[in-house]
Design brief:
CATH architecture of the largest domain: Orthogonal Bundle
Number of helices: 8
Number of strands: 0
CATH topology of the largest domain: Arc Repressor Mutant, subunit A
Helix content: over 70%
Number of domains: 2
Radius of gyration: 18 Å
Oligomer: single chain
CATH superfamily of the largest domain: Winged helix-like DNA-binding domain superfamily/Winged helix DNA-binding domain
Structural class: mainly alpha
Shape: elongated
Distance between the termini: 69 Å
CATH class of the largest domain: Mainly Alpha
Largest sheet: none
Length: about 180
């Protein structure tokens, strides 16, 4: 039977990369800070909750703590957050020439700017759903909210992004004509 240290090592190896991705997106691409906060989350788990959590709950505990650490970081530095390059990557086709690459960069910047305008709770819920592919129940556990609130937040985030996207596309199309 594996010791608690072996179990913790396996948990770290399984979830550290995805926790770093989650934090990096919440922090607007600040990878070194994301790695620091992910490590701090694991340290807090080991110091305070390891061995007391029911099996399978450590993942949710880690995401909740990591999110809280990121929020604390925002408050300390008074910076605006930016989110997730992966959404941009999913929305754009592979660029084949310099013109397409330029357009892709502009589109990516536009999406990041639109994501910044979402309230933090909607961004976090959308990020956990789209990037980490957590279920609504799992997102609710991570964010400590009801499953119905998760559904509402994700719906509102998507609706707001769709609306802002269509307005930007109309404005861009009108300026080209």
């Amino acid at each position: 039977m594996a010791s608690q240290d072996d179990e913790f090592t396996m948990l770290f190896q399984d979830f550290y990369p995805s926790l770093c991705r989650f934090l990096e997106c919440l922090l607007g691409g600040r990878a070194p800070l994301a790695q620091d906060l992910a490590q701090e989350s694991f340290l807090q788990l080991h110091r305070t909750a390891w061995g007391t959590l029911p099996p399978g709950e450590a993942r949710f505990w880690l995401y909740r703590v990591a999110r809280n650490l990121a929020i604390n970081e925002f408050r300390k530095t008074n910076t605006r957050y930016r989110l997730f390059d992966r959404v941009v990557e999913a929305m754009r086709p592979a660029a084949r020439n310099p013109e397409q690459e330029y357009e892709t960069r502009e589109r990516k910047q536009l999406v990041l700017e639109m994501l910044q305008t979402l309230p933090e709770d909607q961004r976090a819920a959308l990020l956990l759903r789209e990037q980490e592919q957590l279920s609504y129940r799992e997102i609710g556990e991570v964010l400590n909210i009801s499953e119905s609130k998760v559904k509402v937040d994700i719906f509102r985030a998507r609706a707001a992004l769709r609306e802002r996207w269509s307005k930007k596309v109309k404005v861009a199309g009108a300026s080209v004509s």
